[in-house]
């Protein structure tokens, strides 16, 4: 069935359902809080923002404990999950303290949690925090990049995490 051009009022459910049709890379944001504890979240709203300076934007729910650990000037990593890392993505999507127990990660730059095997990891510093409705837009200045072009990233589409097709 294709779009028939009939528009409906926007409800939370209709918006959520419509946005599930927008494929997005499965991105994993990690950081450490003020006490040195790892924090993380699975996010689909990640985008390049600027080439000069190199900036990325990440949207986090206003109630996120990960967002609470990201004041301006704080460091974080954005990873692009590879096929086979669905467990890590589901773990970081949960609420609670035990998110980092069931997948491989190591302390990296500044002690930030680096998730092993991702196709991309970007080391960022929070440049700005901007309001965005029930989310906050985190603008990060990219300081370093680790890129593995041989991995197969996964995307979130229609509430499923799927590997991208070979080009």
Please give a structural write-up.
This protein has helices spanning 12-19, 65-68, 86-93; strands at 24-25, 27-32, 38-43, 46-50, 55-61, 75-80, 105-107, 113-115, 120-132, 135-147, 154-157, 160-163. The strands form three sheets. The protein has a seven-stranded antiparallel β-sheet with strand order 3-2-6-9-10-5-4. The chain has a three-stranded antiparallel β-sheet with strand order 1-11-12, with no helix packed on it. A two-stranded antiparallel ribbon has the order 7-8. Strand 2 and strand 3 (38-43) form a beta hairpin. By secondary structure, the protein is mainly beta. The protein has a single domain (23-160), classed as Electron Transport, Fmn-binding Protein, Chain A (Pnp Oxidase, Chain A, Roll). The protein starts with 11 loop residues before the first helix and ends with a strand. Pfam families: Flavin_Reduct (PF01613).
Summarize this entry quickly:
The protein has 167 residues and is mainly beta. 12% of the residues lie in helices and 43% in strands.
Question: In terms of topology, how is this protein built?
Answer:
Blueprint: H1 12-19, E1 24-25, E2 27-32, E3 38-43, E4 46-50, E5 55-61, H2 65-68, E6 75-80, H3 86-93, E7 105-107, E8 113-115, E9 120-132, E10 135-147, E11 154-157, E12 160-163
Antiparallel strand pairs: 1-11, 2-3, 2-6, 4-5, 5-10, 6-9, 7-8, 9-10, 11-12
